[in-house]
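lol forgot to send this yesterday, sorry. struct tokens for the thing we talked abt
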């Protein structure tokens, strides 16, 4: 499972080399620490968790699992940030393609999570993966809560 995320990130960056991402092994350690036993990884990608194309120090790794979406950021100073978003928290998402980079905004009940500095060619793949993930996983959470 841990190597699966690493391979998905490596494959993503080989396919979409213009995605801006740094210190990936540090962020991967956070993901590995917080993946639960039996949790299946569906899709992973690196990005910057911000909206400013000039801020390249906010790299994160995003992982879609069968239970939730994990967003991990290892800070330069001691500590890290981990967001865990369950499918029932989603409202919608938007895809933006700019001149140089792309951006994905995921609207949740509490906040809008923004992933920027993505290779524009990666946007259709991320959009498809996110759409399929939400259409498959969100009904399970709604059914479980009723």
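and heres what i got for the seq, position by position
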């Amino acid at each position: 499972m841990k190597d699966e995320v690493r391979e998905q990130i490596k494959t993503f960056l080989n396919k979409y080399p213009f995605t801006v991402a740094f210190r990936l092994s540090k962020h991967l350690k956070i993901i590995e620490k917080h993946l639960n036993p039996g949790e299946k990884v569906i899709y992973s990608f690196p990005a910057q968790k911000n909206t400013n194309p000039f801020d390249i120090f906010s790299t994160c790794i995003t992982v879609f699992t069968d239970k939730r979406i994990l967003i991990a950021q290892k800070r330069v100073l001691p500590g890290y940030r981990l967001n865990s978003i369950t499918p029932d928290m989603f409202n919608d998402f938007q895809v933006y393609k700019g001149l140089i980079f792309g951006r994905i905004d995921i609207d949740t009940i509490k906040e809008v999570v923004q992933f920027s500095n993505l290779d524009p060619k990666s946007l259709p793949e991320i959009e498809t993966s996110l759409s399929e993930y939400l259409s498959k996983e969100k009904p399970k959470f709604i059914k479980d809560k009723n």
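Residues 60 and 73 are 5 Å apart (CA to CA). anyway ping me if u want another try
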